[in-house]
Specification:
By secondary structure, the protein is an all-alpha fold. The chain is 60% helix and 0% strand. The protein has seven helices and no strands. The radius of gyration is 34 Å and the shape is elongated.
C-alpha cells in the first residue's frame, strides 16, 4: 500500500498537486525602463535660459537708468512733471521684471522635465536592455544616492535644497558618462561652477530683496518717529539722513541685481554646456555599437523575392 506524498501540496491521492492546479500568485508589475531622447527638451531649456538672461540684462540696464530719477525723487529735487515721468519710468520696469519671473519659472519647468527624463534614462542605461550596459560602483545602492521623488522635491524642500539638487545632478552626470570616456576635469568644473553661481544668484536675489523691504520699513518707521517728535510749529522737518539712507538702499538694489544677473548668465552657460554633454553621453550609450566587419547597408533594404506562380511574365523561384 502506498503512503501519501509527504509535504504541504498533497491531494486526495498519494501524489503532489500538479503545478497547473496551484493557486496563481501574480508577480509585482515592474515597468520596463526605456530610453527617451533629450535633445529637444534640452534645446527648449537652453533657449529659455538665454531669454531669461537677456531679459535680466535689460532689467538691470533700466534700473541703472532710473537710479538718478530715484535719487532726485527721494531728495525732493523734481518738479511735478518730472515726478510723473520718474514714476512712469520706475513703474515701467515692473512688467519687464514680471517677464523675468515668468521666464525663470518656465526655464525651471523645462529643466526639471529634462532632469527627470535624464534620471529615467540612467535606469535604462544600467538595465539589461541597454546596448552598452554599465554597472554601478556600489551594486547595493545603485548609481543614485536619492530616490526618484527628490528629482523635483529637492528644489523646494527647505535646508536640503542647498545640496540635494547638486547631488542629484552629479549622480545623473556620473551615471551618463560612458565607461570608456576619459576622466577630465571639464565636466566637474562645469558642475561645480553651475551650482555655485546658481546658489549665489538665489541668495543675492532673495537676500537682497529681503534687505530692501526691511530697509523701506525702517525708513518709514523713522520718518513717522521724526514727524511725531518734531516741533509742529517749525518750518520744516530734517529728514536728510533718512533720504540718504533710502538712496543707499536704492543703490544697493541696483548693485545686487546687477551681480545676480552676471551670476545668472554664468549659471545659464554652464548648465547649457552640462546638459548638452549629458544628452550626448546618453545618446551615445543608448545607440547600439557597430558590428566589426559588417558594412552598413547603403540604400533601401533589400527583400527576398516572393514565390510566384510560373507563367510567361513571371520568373520561377523554387523547385
Amino acid at each position: 500500500m502506498t503512503q501519501p506524498y509527504p509535504g504541504p501540496n498533497k491531494g486526495p491521492w498519494p501524489y503532489p498537486v500538479p503545478y497547473q492546479q496551484m493557486p496563481y500568485q501574480p508577480m509585482p508589475y515592474q515597468p520596463m525602463p526605456r530610453y527617451r531622447p533629450l535633445r529637444k527638451v534640452a534645446i527648449v531649456s537652453i533657449v529659455l535660459m538665454g531669454l531669461t538672461s537677456l531679459a535680466a540684462v535689460i532689467q538691470s540696464v533700466l534700473l541703472w537708468r532710473s537710479y538718478d530719477d530715484v535719487k532726485r525723487l527721494v531728495y525732493g529735487l523734481l518738479s511735478e512733471e518730472e515726478i510723473d515721468r520718474g514714476v512712469e519710468s520706475i513703474s515701467g520696469t515692473g512688467p519687464l521684471l514680471n517677464l523675468v519671473s515668468y521666464l525663470l519659472m518656465g526655464t525651471g519647468i523645462a529643466f526639471l522635465i529634462w532632469l527627470w527624463q535624464a534620471r529615467e534614462n540612467t535606469d535604462f542605461l544600467y538595465s539589461p536592455f541597454a546596448p552598452r550596459r554599465a554597472f554601478p560602483a556600489d551594486p547595493m545602492r545603485g548609481p543614485h544616492r536619492r530616490a526618484n521623488g527628490w528629482v523635483v522635491g529637492a528644489w523646494f524642500c527647505p535646508i536640503v535644497q542647498f545640496w540635494y539638487p547638486f547631488q542629484i545632478v552629479q549622480d545623473i552626470t556620473r551615471a551618463s558618462e560612458p565607461p570608456e570616456a576619459p576622466r577630465s576635469g571639464r565636466v566637474r568644473t562645469l558642475l561645480y561652477s553651475w551650482w555655485a553661481t546658481w546658489t549665489a544668484f538665489w541668495v543675492i536675489l532673495v537676500g537682497g530683496g529681503t534687505v530692501a523691504v526691511i530697509g523701506f520699513i525702517i525708513w518709514f518707521i523713522r520718518l513717522v518717529q521724526v514727524a511725531e517728535s518734531s516741533d509742529a510749529g517749525g518750518p520744516y522737518v530734517d529728514i536728510y539722513d533718512m533720504q540718504d539712507f533710502m538712496v543707499r538702499v536704492a543703490l544697493g538694489v541696483d548693485i545686487g541685481f546687477t551681480v545676480a544677473t552676471v551670476l545668472l548668465i554664468v549659471a545659464a552657460v554652464t548648465a547649457s554646456l552640462l546638459m548638452l554633454q549629458v544628452t550626448d553621453w546618453q545618446h551615445t550609450r543608448a545607440t547600439p555599437p557597430p558590428i566589426q566587419g559588417v558594412p552598413r547597408p547603403i540604400g533601401p533594404p533589400q527583400y527576398a523575392p516572393r514565390y510566384h506562380r510560373p507563367g510567361p511574365d513571371f520568373p520561377t523561384y523554387g523547385p
